[in-house]
């Protein structure tokens, strides 16, 4: 009996182990997968993916929002400025003239009254040009808008160089030969121009440059300006003294030499500065 008991226990143990193994195998078999479970899992995965994307792109979205807001603000400012500039809010109510000495500023303002009420950004340039054409003394001009209601007109006047006598009287001209005015009597303080070829010629252009280069005190003493070509301009002063200038070249240097020469030799009759490095007094 004692020899058979171990074998019986061994068989019982083996049977129990086999049963447990079978139970374990049955427990390890997967349950059938349903389509609803797959759909829920996919939806959960998409949610998790979107959450991750939002988390990683939140900063870039914030930057883009700031950029778009800034661009929108700039565009709104530009649009508002343009609308305001072209609206009656910035219409011309006052015209100011600067630089007028020989020109009547009040007459210029009156000539430009047609621009009153126009927006500063819509000033009619051609109309302004036409309105200023009757003023020959105006060589050039510039318009400056001064919001909200002022239009500033800066003018540069022509510089008269002398008068040309004719049957009609005396024509006051500038260095370009533009007639600024015509009077029956010779204007005070203006020299008579005795120049061959008339306005537009080389002699006239040279003489005009010479007169404009003279110091103001010496220019006021001029009685006559003569030239037969562009290289022999001669000036005659009120007291009879003569200045041989030559061409218009080196006029600034010649003016300096002439002033020094006249101070050093006040009793001279003729001052020749045609060659400024070797001036001559006679």
Structural overview:
With 282 residues, the chain is α/β, with parallel strands linked by helices. The chain folds into three domains: 59-89; 91-157, membrane protein fhac (Ubiquitin-like (UB roll)); 160-281, Rossmann fold, CATH 3.40.50. Helices cover 42% and strands 23% of the residues. It has seven helices and twelve strands. The chain has helices at residues 5-27, 35-85, 105-111, 125-132, 202-213, 216-219, 251-264, and strands at residues 94-98, 138-146, 150-157, 160-166, 169-174, 179-183, 192-195, 222-227, 233-237, 242-246, 270-272, 280-281. The longest helix is centred in the N-terminal third of the chain and has 51 residues, at 35-85. The protein starts with a helix and ends with a strand.
Supply the CATH class of the largest domain.
Alpha Beta
Q: How many distinct domains? A: 3
Shape: elongated
**Count of DSSP H/I helices:** 7
Named at the architecture level, the CATH assignment of the largest domain is 3-Layer(aba) Sandwich
The count of strands amounts to 12
The radius of gyration over CA amounts to 50 Å
Strand order of the largest sheet: 7-8-9-10-11-12
In the CATH hierarchy, what is the superfamily of the largest domain? Cell division protein FtsQ/DivIB
CATH topology of the largest domain: Rossmann fold
Q: Characterize the biggest β-sheet.
A: 6 strands, mixed
Q: Specify the structural class.
A: alpha/beta
Oligomer category: single chain
Strand percentage = 15-25%
